[in-house]
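Data card: per-record layout.
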Amino acid sequence: MKAEQNKRETFVQITHNSFANQSRIFRETQSAAKSSLFGSIVLLGLRKDDRQVNNGFDTLPKSIVSLFEINLVLRRAKYLRMILRPFYYMEWVFRSWYLLKSKSVRVIAGHGITTLPIAIFLKLATGSKLLYDAHELETEQAGLNRYSKIIYKIVEFFGIRFVDHTLVVAPGIASWYEKRYRLCNIQVVRNFPLKSAQASISQSLKERLGISQSSTLSVYIGKFTPFRSIQEILDAYTKTRPDNHVVFIGHGPLESLIHTYQAAHPTIHFLESLEQSTLLSLLPSADFSLCLIQDVSLSYRYSLPNKLFESLAAGVPVLGSNLPEIETIIKTSNAGWLVEPTATAISEFVSRITKPEIEEKRQNAAATASELCWENEETCYLDQLKLLI
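The structure for this 389-residue chain is written out next.
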């Protein structure tokens, strides 16, 4: 009887972004689709640009999963966005409700604090359960202005009362939420990559960049944004030996800074964002990866960046910041090193590290890869969904 009921029920995942780079939502959706816990899954996002949805969403079973990216009319009014924000949310709520009105919605997952108001409305409108999937310590994000921080705190303080269960990405964040809101219905589900997506070396990053195989190459993956030590890394690699190279792979507002350094220093390289399959084939040929988050907010202090796990999954050791969660992973796996994210500390490390030391850490990273994978985290995630059915 229960199984028959599940076939008629819908699981809804909501994000305030496009699905173009939503690897966590993809993994969760794939697991939910395989589990037969629901008859259908609806993914609701917002269209931000003309980028095509990737990260494997087109491989999800279309008989179960429906993906919608809503192109809000009011979103196009860039210069009036703050004034029109209440109407922007009203449009988002109405159009989302319209897509769901014929569904028997059982669980709604709101990804991030910006989805919490609409997720609460849809919960009340459909009589469903609400899962709050916090991708970071939402109210303590780096770079939030004072106005936004106050709004986020108010939304989360009152909104959390409507939440039936909360997921977070790191133990430190879970502890913070438990203390702040006295939560007991909370679980850590980490952003481990899929083991099935891990790849061995099929292309050489050094060959692609035209540098010697005997050189030492570090890699930075992800967004080029403040507080990720990009300036410090660039400065560090202007002071090291000519056989020490770094490549930045990604996009973001600091891209022009990287190009400026690249033009003046042959040891600094740049590649635009790559498809996941291409990145996975290139990453294992790097000597080590850089994960140098700065301690500028509680969200960053307790973060566990995707690139940390992606690097270890590829068998690549990590040079990480000495922040609590990153430190725990690197020390437990013995698959990397910890430094202060300053130009001097980075430069000193790069200058003294040897190939035998790197190889030892590579072996530890390869041993860790089979443990830090989504397939091992999947059961925990599905158990949380079962609590809401």
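Known properties of this structure: The chain has two domains: 2-192+374-386, 195-369. Residues 81-100 form the longest helix (20 residues).

See the next section for split statistics.
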